[in-house]
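Before relying on records like the one below, remember that each one covers exactly one chain. Contacts with other chains, cofactors or solvent are not represented anywhere in the record.
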Amino acid sequence: MAVFDNHAHANEFTGWGVVEVTRRFRAAGGRGIVFVALLTWSIGGRPGDRGWVVRLYDHAVRNAEVARGAGLVSGAVVGLHPAECVRLLEAGWGVGEVEGFMRWAVDLAARYVEEGRAVGLGEFGRPHWPVDGRVVELCNRVVLYALERARDVGAAVHLHLERGGQATVDSVVELVKRAGVDPARVVMHHIEGALAGYAYARGLSPSVPVGRRGEFEDALRAGSVFVVESDYLDDKSRPGAVIPPWTLASKLRQYVAKGVLSADDMYKICVENVRRIYGDLLEV
């Protein structure tokens, strides 16, 4: 009955911070949680500053360390959100400059995995809001490079993507094939519940947000082929944006109590499917 949250953030600068987040999650039945890097400016940093990228990654690593110290299974996923690309372009950087910077950020993330400080790269990806074609093309090149480096170091990858239906899934499958990476290690973060079965059938690992009304139930129609996430922002100025990890844990346990979810399904979602993504990188 233990719960695993596959994608969450903790931020003492804007919210409760990791100590309180992990305490509440564990009290609600949480067993494991993956902490993903935020945006550089969410911790007071400057976009495009390499020193701040290091601090950003170290922040996610420390969050995972605190969670493990509290008795949880935890790992860090480090990388730069596609919003960083957009912010740099808006600041006047050239496309080539942004791509070079993002490739450096990918290489740094891969080094964190090699050194045992992180379990994955992310959340690299594409904006989920309207942008022009050059931004999409740039982000696709960054995603391809992130997938290639994840292949090299045996890491998971969390992808931030637009919600474009099957076309979004198909585009990721094509990039995965070009990179030669194990698709099971590629997490489609915050995927539409109705697409979980389709993504899994293409070899990918769908990660379903429990806080979106009806999406967990939509995903379950394809069977327990996904993992779950809160995508918690830990930002007190946006309290209703997503659910906290402890609410995710409570909801899943209620699903089991009401018979919506069997104990076997719960084990597959929170243990077996997590192992499929991270392998030996996380002892689930």
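The chain has a mean pLDDT of 97.
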